[in-house]
Amino acid sequence: MRRPGPSSSCRHGSAALPTLLLLLLLLAASAQAQQARTRTDPVEADALKGVFDKIGREMWPSWFSSSVDPCTGAATDDTDTDIDHNPNLNPAIKCNCKYQNNTVCHITKLKMYALDLVGPIPEELRNLTHLTNLNLMQNYLTGPIPSFLGELTALQYLSLAINALSGSVPKELGKLVNLVSLGISINNLNGSLPPELGNMVKLEQLYIDSSGLSGPLPPSFSKLTSLKILWASDNDFTGQIPDYIGSLSNLSDLRFQGNSFQGPLPTTLSNLVQLTSLRIGDIVNGSSSLAFISNMTSLNTLVLRNCRISDNLASVNFSQFAKLSLLDLSFNNITGLVPQALLNLNSLSFLFLGNNSLSGSLPSSIGTSLKNLDFSYNQLSGNFPSWVSPNLTLNLVANNFVVSNSNNSVLLPSGLECLQRDTPCFLGSPQTKSFAVDCGSSSSMSGSDGSVYLPDDANLGPASYYVTGAPTWGVSNVGRFMEAFERDYIIQSLNASYTVYSSTRLFRNTPDSELFQKARMSPSSLRYFGIGLENGNYVVTLQFAEISFEDSRTWKSLGKRVFDIYIQGERKEQNFDIRKEARGSYAAVQKQYIIPVTRNFLEIHLFWAGKGTCCIPSQGHYGPLISALSVTPAPNAARKRSKNKTGATVGAAVGAVVVGLIVLTGLYVRRQKSRKLSLEQQDLYNTVGRPNLFTYSYGELKTASENFNSSNFLGEGGYGSVYKGKLSDGSVVAVKLLSETSRQGKKQFITEIETISQVQHRNLVKLYGCCLEGNNPLLVYEYLDNGSLDKALFGNGRLNLDWPTRFEICLGIARGLAYLHEESSIRVVHRDIKASNVLLDANLNSKISDFGLAKLYDDKNTHISTKVAGTFGYLAPEYAMRGHMSEKVDVFAFGVVILETIAGRPNYDGRLGEDKAYLLEWVLLLWTLLWAEPTGGAASRRQQLRQVRRLICWIRWQEVSNSC
Hints:
Elements: H1 8-37, E1 39-40, H2 42-55, E2 92-99, E3 104-111, E4 118-120, E5 133-135, E6 140-144, E7 157-159, E8 164-167, E9 181-183, E10 188-189, E11 205-207, E12 214-215, E13 229-231, E14 236-237, E15 253-256, E16 277-281, E17 301-305, E18 310-312, E19 326-328, E20 333-336, H3 340-343, E21 350-352, E22 357-360, E23 372-374, E24 379-380, E25 393-395, E26 435-439, E27 445-446, E28 452-456, E29 463-467, E30 473-478, E31 490-492, E32 518-521, E33 525-531, E34 536-544, E35 563-567, E36 570-576, H4 578-582, E37 589-597, E38 601-607, E39 625-626, E40 628-633, H5 635-654, H6 656-688, E41 694-695, H7 698-704, E42 713-716, E43 720-726, E44 732-738, H8 743-756, E45 767-771, E46 778-782, H9 789-794, H10 803-823, E47 828-829, E48 838-840, E49 846-848, E50 855-856, E51 864-865, H11 877-882, E52 884-885, H12 888-903, H13 919-926, H14 941-957
Parallel strand pairs: 1-3, 3-5, 4-6, 5-7, 6-8, 7-9, 8-10, 9-11, 11-13, 12-14, 13-15, 15-16, 16-17, 17-19, 18-20, 19-21, 20-22, 21-23, 22-24, 23-25, 26-28, 41-45
Antiparallel strand pairs: 2-3, 26-40, 27-28, 29-30, 30-33, 31-32, 32-39, 33-38, 34-37, 34-40, 35-36, 35-38, 42-43, 43-44, 44-46, 45-46, 47-50, 48-49, 51-52
Helix pairs in contact: 5-6, 10-12, 12-14
């Protein structure tokens, strides 16, 4: 049988196939020929290779190798693919191949975004001279912003944001006159903005928030009239917001929160009629009105929080703001009634008017979109309107409302009556003396301190409060996270992979890791209340741990959380940074305060003052965060209560007559004793005031130290002896006993209380309390196991300290001094820094002690003339000769301590020859030689020499020379 042949159509198709293949081959050959004729500029190809070699070798893309020209494929796509917004193209380049008759390609765009690149910005970039777009955002690039970037004059978009870059902004960037967008946000820069940046007249977007910059905004910025977006929050810009900002009439988004700007706000802001978003906050001094916003009718978001605004809301015609979605005027001095026109805005969803002086009653109606209203901390009163509903988040804490079942208050969360201004619950009839809260947790737990921490998982929104059923405590939250509108107000720690939530992560510095698995977070203001407490002194313990930011060399470690802590209206911490205090994430920090309660009510307030990053690891991670808190009676208060209760019981048992005799006798004896005690303490109280510290009795400290037995003697302090003591609860302390004959000692005692009770830092010895009885006032400090640094270095029981340990000891002293000189709310010069005044704990962490000679100083003055005090051999020359006191007094002495630590010998050793007896003279003779103590370990000789030479430069010129 014959097999059937192909049909006619198949025969025609077969005939056409060779022709089609030939065409394809010709096209391919043509493309290959064109590609052979077109290649990337070799200088740029080498530069690109150098960039990847230095910071991106592990990220080498498939299209880039020694055998493949980089400007191929998608890199030359004529459709101008948007590599910035395509996550699949990263890293990526774009090329322009239309040079020299389409034979040469130049690289015009380079994207290396969020690749965890580490290291300085490669110098090879300077050879990519045709770049119009450079995106190195969201990595861990270090070192300075290189000035050669100013040579890339074709640049239109430059993003270096979210890195670890340091140093100043180079003035050479002002040469980038074609730049449309510049981003240097979230870096570790310093200094002021160079005026040369005003030459970038085409600039439309400038992102400099959280960059570390300071000083006034340069006048040359008045030329940036093309600006549409200016983000400059979380820096230290000073002076007034310049009037010329009002001439930047194209601005649509302006952010000036968390700086040091002075008021009043410029009236020229009224010219910015194209603004859709305006955020200004945290203005220092001055007073402003709301008049400048009247013409900003295109606004969608208006935040003028903490701006020292004194005005009446009636001065603004809010009916014009038809697009307004969020209004925040909280923490000002706004008076008058709440306008009906404001609440009737149908576009308005979020309204924050808390912490003002508003009065009267609430309006009778609200707009259809308004779901979140904060009126807390005002003077509002009257009945609750009919629009009050469980579907709203409405915060009316700290007003003058009368809460009863006869009005609409039943529709609000319970407990509001306990949080009104003048009528807190249980006023005069307390019901508790302690409480503890595990913030964010859904279950209770027992802490190692004996407290039972209650759960706190109420779903608080942007304007919410919650009061426990008892009620013994409550919480209030206010604020909305920027660009993260659905952000939870409770966050949970991640496990080591940072991707899975964990309930078993271990935290450093605490035996109670369970307390820190969750935390409550707020974008603006978070308050906890103690309700119905007995009046008296309490220990308020706040516990924190940073659980949002990684400890790694990636961009996820670059977040910074900063907030203030107020208790009973008094600021206790300014610019508190959990991670900085704990020296890392996932490490516990405990802050304790002695707080008086006088109206059976306690308020703990965590307040965001505009500082910190906004968007690491994602949008909306900023503002106050707390893991746990506890409130317990102060020990002296507990003892007094115990005595009172015991006296009452005995009195009831022995009868009225005997009680009368005992009471009369006791009162007489106590009065005489108190009178004597009062006279003995009067000078101290008049000078210091009653210390905000634990008050110990002389008897218990005498018992703790075994009658100040010589076996417990630790050494001589600046004005008396120091003994080891063991209190009745088992805790070990150091007790400093003022010499009975020391008049100077009493002055130093007062100075020490005044100073160290106001400063708290991990590298300062902690003061627990004092005793002012008798002729021998006492201070009680934490006990540090390894004693003083001088004994550890060259005492009889010297420790074997290797080089890294010695370095960490010096670093700890430096941190303590930096806190005293620059970071504390008061500026302190210690004046007696020396090895014997540096103590070491069990882990050899260094802590500065003995503040008897300390002085406060004004950092605006270059020096203060004062009577010379301190220890011979540690005195700065200008201080010893002329009495000129500044922080350099401590810095000089610190340099001597560093030399002692490195050399392992004291400042003066009379056993050595005359040319070696004095450490400084000896070192100056040997400064060109390599020297180090043999027990310093096997550290690099070159490293030691470099350190020593730097120190010698500092000693000779009183500061580290740039040439060292």
